[in-house]
Write a structure and sequence with these properties.
The chain has eight helices and 19 strands. The strands form four sheets. Strands 5-6-4-14-15-16-13-17 form an eight-stranded mixed beta sheet, with helices on both faces. Strands 8-2-1-12-19-18 form a six-stranded mixed beta sheet, covered by helices on one side. It is elongated, with a radius of gyration of 21 Å. The protein has two domains: 1-7 and 26-115 and 173-247 and 341-399, FAD/NAD(P)-binding domain, CATH 3.50.50.60; 116-169 and 249-339, D-Amino Acid Oxidase, Chain A, domain 2, CATH 3.30.9. The longest helix has 25 residues, at 81-105. The chain has 406 residues and is of the alpha/beta class. Strand 14 and strand 15 form a beta hairpin. The protein binds glycine. Residues 69, 75, 252, 293-294, 337, 363 line the site of glycine.
Length: 406
């Protein structure tokens, strides 16, 4: 997509609330109605772009499975410092974003400023956590080292063997299911058309993307098409191979348990650790739900919940908080994180005119929802990526010769 042509088109088409009129081709079709697709559509519609979302079940997607940790600090990894700046930008917008959604829809998306405690069970864990703490401090982040005793003072239900931990008061949570529902309503209120069908194929006119064909027989034309279908963005038929987002599914199994209504909650904040090399986290909701996640498995498109996955999550969670095994297990589910080669999202124009991406958010889809909406609305209305998103252009993965995928 060339910046100048899309920029002038967007400006001329923008109006306070775009409405569908017969014969008017929508400005934007967003393929995928998970939180990333919905926030893109909502923000685009707020800027006057006539927008359609294509998804059989808007509000679903990977976020339906996710625990909703907003863990910019405790999920920091070596080599991901560039991503950190985007994660922090999004975390910093969350309170206002959640308030705006509530205001726009009357639905509370469940933003909770609970903080996080990352704990170590043994000397090896403690060494790992000390390294993470050093990296956090080098990056200017706020995290406090606590003794095991101080960890238990904060969270009395922690296992007696906990050897220390990191208190991160800035890593909060949101309820991704409520977030998805609120975004559906926000889109509806903003005039977004929700086309409840599956996108089958991208349509092209010469070298330009012109929309999609859906499995209910519709052909949806639009000025710009946004691939926002998580890992499925990598397999939409008709996308020229050189513009297909290089995202792959990484399976995560997640459990939901119910904390007793008549007793104090088991935990007051998110508790997490790396147990035998596997991350495990326990996210307590105000409504009494306790979300335990998550496996990380390279299993292609498989979303089977396995006995082994459930066993390992419960075993590891039990080592941190023994009381979890007393709780009713209310749900088990697996979802697919859209992982990119550098674990960072792809935001903005692809190599094909009229085709943009908003995918590849991997472990940070829920966290990155507010900033993704802002970035995508900016690029859809101006044709240009804002400064904060320049490192995340899909063009960083451009390869060789154009060729049609299928
Ligand atoms: N961000 C948590 C996960 O991907 O499991």
């Amino acid at each position: 997509m060339s910046s100048s042509s899309s920029s002038s088109r967007a400006r001329s088409e923008a109006s306070p609330r775009a409405t569908a009129t017969p014969g008017r081709i929508p400005d934007v079709v967003v393929v995928g109605g998970g939180v990333i697709g919905l926030v893109t559509a909502w923000r685009a519609a707020q800027r006057g772009l006539l927008t359609t979302v294509v998804d059989p079940e808007p509000g679903g997607g990977a976020a339906r499975v996710a625990a909703g940790m907003l863990a910019a600090v405790t999920e920091l990894h070596y080599g991901e410092e560039t991503l950190l700046s985007l994660n922090l930008a999004s975390a910093g917008r969350y309170a206002a974003f959640a308030a705006e959604l509530l205001d726009a829809t009357g639905q509370d998306p469940g933003y909770r400023r609970c903080g996080t405690l990352a704990v170590a069970r043994d000397a090896d864990d403690r060494a790992l956590l000390r390294d993470l703490h050093a990296l956090q401090l080098r990056c200017g982040l706020s995290a406090e080292w606590l003794s095991g005793r101080d960890c238990r003072r904060l969270e009395p239900m922690l296992a007696p063997g906990v050897r220390g931990g990191l208190r991160v008061d800035g890593d909060h949570q949101i309820d991704p299911r409520r977030l998805g529902r609120a975004l559906v309503t926000a889109c509806e209120h903003a005039g977004v058309t929700l086309h409840r069908a599956r996108a089958l194929r991208l349509t092209m006119d010469a070298d330009r993307a012109t929309g999609v064909v859906t499995d209910d027989g519709a052909t949806l034309r639009a000025g710009r098409t946004v691939l926002a279908g998580g890992s499925a963005s990598a397999r939409l038929t008709g996308v020229p191979r050189h513009a297909l987002p290089p995202v792959r599914p990484v399976k995560g199994q997640v459990l939901r348990l119910a904390m007793p209504a008549d007793a104090p909650p088991l935990l007051s904040r998110t508790v997490r650790a790396v147990v035998r090399g596997n991350p495990v986290y326990l996210v307590p909701r105000e409504n009494g739900e306790l979300v335990v996640g998550a496996t990380s498995e390279e299993m292609g498109w498989d979303t089977t919940v396995t006995a082994g996955g459930v066993y390992e999550l419960l075993r590891d969670a039990h080592e941190l908080v023994p009381g979890v095994t007393e709780l009713p297990l209310t749900e088990t589910l697996a979802g697919l994180r859209p992982a990119s080669p550098d674990n960072a999202p792809l935001l903005g124009p692809t190599a094909v005119e009229g085709l943009l991406a908003a995918t590849g958010h991997h472990r940070n889809g829920v966290l990155l929802t507010p900033v993704t909406g802002d970035v995508m609305a900016h690029v859809l209305t101006t044709g240009l990526l804002p400064q904060e998103a320049l490192p995340f252009t899909p063009r960083r993965f451009d390869t060789a010769t154009p060729e049609t995928s299928r």
